[in-house]
Amino acid sequence: QVQLVESGGGLVQSGGSLRLSCKASGSTLDDHDMGWFRQAPGKERERVACIGSSGVGTVFGDPVKGRFTISRDNAKNTVYLEMNSLKPEDTGVYYCAADKGRAYSSYFHICKPEVFEYWGQGTQVTVSS
């Protein structure tokens, strides 16, 4: 089992920045592809960004391309999401996710919720206009 805990969410003005963190336990993080997804009330969970286990490959959802950056520090068992130039439409609950690990095929490049196995509890991000 992999446990994931997100932190760093909060209220920010439009145009501002936030940095989310996802701390993992129960597994070495370098065994896992990782992803960030978000969900607004009444809407489906959508792609934010995904990153391969080594950090070499990344994928971003179209609404955040050029504004968000995903990174990882495997020595700290932590994945980060840097969010810049935030817009009100970025508001939602942000979830961190891990796939099944190196023993399984890697599908991080697909970057859909269905390819991830473990999920954090989510952290709220609210962007005011």
Descriptive tags:
single chain, 129 residues, mainly beta, 7-stranded mixed β-sheet, 4-stranded antiparallel β-sheet, 11 strands, 0% helix
How are the secondary structure elements laid out?
Blueprint (H helix, E strand, L loop, with lengths): L2 E5 L2 E4 L4 E8 L8 E6 L6 E6 L6 E3 L7 E6 L4 E6 L8 E7 L19 E2 L3 E6 L1
Parallel strand pairs: 2-11
Antiparallel strand pairs: 1-3, 3-8, 4-5, 4-9, 5-6, 7-8, 9-10, 9-11
The helix/strand order is EEEEEEEEEEE
Distance between the termini: 40 Å
Q: Supply the helix-strand structural class.
A: mainly beta
Give the DSSP E fraction (strand runs of 2 or more residues): over 45%
Give the count of helical stretches.
0
Overall 3D form: globular
Task: Please give the radius of gyration in angstroms.
Answer: 14 Å
* Largest sheet data: 7 strands, mixed
Integer average pLDDT: 95
Give the low-confidence spans.
Answer: none
Helix content: under 10%
Work out the number of β strands: 11
